[in-house]
Amino acid sequence: MKEINKLSCRHSFTGTLLELAREDKDIVAVTSDATGSATLGDFVKALPEQFVEVGIAEQNSVGVAAGLASCGKKPFIFGPACFYVARSLEQVKVDMAYSQMPVKIFGVSGGVAYSQLGATHHSLHDIAVLRTFPGMEVYLPCDYWETRQLCKALVNRNKPAYIRVGRNAVPDVYDDENFGFELGKAKTLREGNDITLVGCGETVAHCVEAADQLAKKGIKARVLAYHSLKPFDKEALIKAAQETGAVVTAEEHSVYGGLGGICAEILAQECPTKMRILGVPNENVIHAKPQEVFHYYGFDYEGIMKAAEDLLK
Known about the structure:
Elements: H1 9-23, E1 27-31, H2 41-46, E2 51-53, H3 58-70, E3 74-80, H4 81-84, H5 89-98, E4 104-108, H6 126-130, E5 137-139, H7 144-154, E6 161-164, E7 187-190, E8 195-200, H8 203-215, E9 221-226, E10 228-230, H9 234-244, E11 246-254, H10 259-270, E12 274-280, H11 290-297, H12 301-311
Parallel strand pairs: 1-2, 1-3, 3-4, 4-6, 5-6, 8-9, 8-11, 11-12
Antiparallel strand pairs: 5-10, 7-9
Helix pairs in contact: 1-7, 3-5, 8-12, 9-10
Cofactor: thiamine diphosphate
Family: Belongs to the transketolase family.
InterPro entries: PDH/Transketolase (IPR051157), THDP-binding (IPR029061), Transketo_C/PFOR_II (IPR009014), Transketolase-like_Pyr-bd (IPR005475), Transketolase_C (IPR033248)
């Protein structure tokens, strides 16, 4: 894998939003006592009049943000992913999705990023739940640079959306922000006709590493990177499935209803293909560091390699 960026995806998003907010006074950051964990310190110092602190009240923050959006503001909510797709789910469903208020939730420390805090702080159901809400968009950028481009693309987008990132800095997938980002479109990071590896968020880097290692064994794997789970670029998936005949998906999410579920739903109807879905099984996650969790459940690069080789036997 490439080197880990010095800054996390949290820093990327809040830093980019601050740049944009200096020029656009309609941008407002809303948080529920998460200024530190969301890396909003610089934003608060620079633009206190564009910042709203509601305290530990996630449900209320969604209502406040929806109200701001109804008045023409561009609100971004910042807080732990685990709470915004559990505690405030009704408000997200009604105040954002049903009402089509262009509020953006930036869920930090998603997946298993909170590590040993345990199941109460994991968010492994967010993709599955939120993609069922009509009009709701769901995004998982893979690195610092893609997070930056995603922020720029969403700031003026008139749709409710959920963006999930982890906590710590991650390896760069792209060299810089000039990699040809297109909102809602998958990126082909490696070419190959033997098998397709599909990732989103932090698993993209693992898919790339798996493909590079498989190449040393003579297996040419295609890698599809999805920053957008809804809308979903099904054309890229179908094309890859038709040309490779085998698909492995890897995600920091339950194996139910996430990236793997999306791909299975599409392929079952459009292009039946043998596949494997890698992620967290329907059980409470072990208490371990994030990368240990990735390895234990087999959605790190080694697990992806094994699944690919097994599928090709």
